[in-house]
Amino acid sequence: MKPFALTPDMLSTLGNTFYPTGHTMLVFADEAAAREAAQALAEGGVPGDDVAFVSPEAITNQIGPTTSDADNPLPSPGTEGATVRAYVRLAQEGHAGLLVRTETDEEMERLRTLLRDKPPAMGQRYRTLVIEDL
What we know:
Blueprint: E1 2-3, E2 23-28, H1 31-43, E3 51-54, H2 56-63, H3 80-92, E4 96-101, H4 105-114, E5 122-127, E6 130-133
Parallel strand pairs: 1-3
Antiparallel strand pairs: 2-4, 2-5, 3-4, 5-6
Helix pairs in contact: 2-3
């Protein structure tokens, strides 16, 4: 598992809001729960480079500010701004996250299977033009 670092390819084209296409953002009750889930993924064969730990501070300080232009120049037709604001509210309560590469349906199913007993408080899969609730 690697630490989270926001990169330009994790932002939407319009508004530059957090939108990491090909990934799933999972938010857990606290850092310990997130790390426990990461361990389950590692034991299930998910490569460490495919999983990033997202601390509450990273959610608040890196992901949160991406909503500042979410409705500029036009109101966003999507939910990415509201989704980021939900992450920030959870982070302010101490929740931590994992950003997991899930480009294929098979990777997504493996993630669901491995975390069956460790459900996140919130989970969103980012696909092209679609944010899928988990």
